[in-house]
Specification:
Blueprint (H helix, E strand, L loop, with lengths): L1 H173 L7
Length: about 180
């Protein structure tokens, strides 16, 4: 049994050495792999950080573009509303312009008619002034004739009074009207 114990110890020693060698080899192998994996992991983490940073900058750029787009949309809507308002005002002003042009034509025709009426009225006034002047001259002439007639009437009345007094004298003196006086 000593031989078996001795062989068993050697076998155990051999197994322990093989196991230790295998364990060391595995440790060295896994250590190298772990270092490689750590390097790959670190590289991937750095790449992930870069991608994350780039993604963040892209997200911020996207947010900025989104806000600009919203601003542009609101401005475009505001511009569209203003354009619509201006377009409606333009249409209204054009309609007003057409209406005012028609009124201007009507007023121009009325002005021409008023000028014609004024000219007719001035001509009628001129004729009336001429007629008035004639009437005043006729009146003055009639007044002169009336004055002359009144003088003649007074003269005739004076003569009549003289004749009546003579007639009366004749009647008193002769008893009948006198002839030849």
């Amino acid at each position: 049994m000593g031989y078996v114990d001795k062989n068993a110890n050697i076998l155990l020693l051999f197994l322990i050495v093989v196991s230790s060698t295998g364990l060391v080899a595995a440790t060295v192998y896994f250590q190298k792999n772990f270092q490689t994996i750590n390097k790959d992991y670190d590289q991937k983490v750095n790449e992930l950080k870069k991608v994350s940073t780039e993604l963040e900058s892209q997200r911020q750029a996207l947010e900025a573009i989104k806000s600009e787009l919203l601003l542009k949309q609101s401005r475009e809507q505001e511009f569209s509303e203003k354009f619509t308002t201006v377009k409606e005002e333009k249409k209204s002003l054009e309609e007003t312009k057409v209406g005012l042009e028609k009124k201007a034509e009507i007023l121009e025709q009325e002005r021409i008619d008023a000028i014609a009426k004024e000219q007719k009225a001035e001509a009628a006034l001129s004729d009336a002034l001429i007629d008035l002047d004639k009437a005043e001259r006729e009146r003055d002439s009639c007044i002169g004739q009336k004055d002359a007639c009144q003088r003649d009437l007074r003269s005739i009345q004076g003569s009549l009074t003289t004749f009546q007094s003579r007639l009366s004298n004749c009647k008193n003196t002769c008893g009948s009207p006198c002839e030849g006086t």
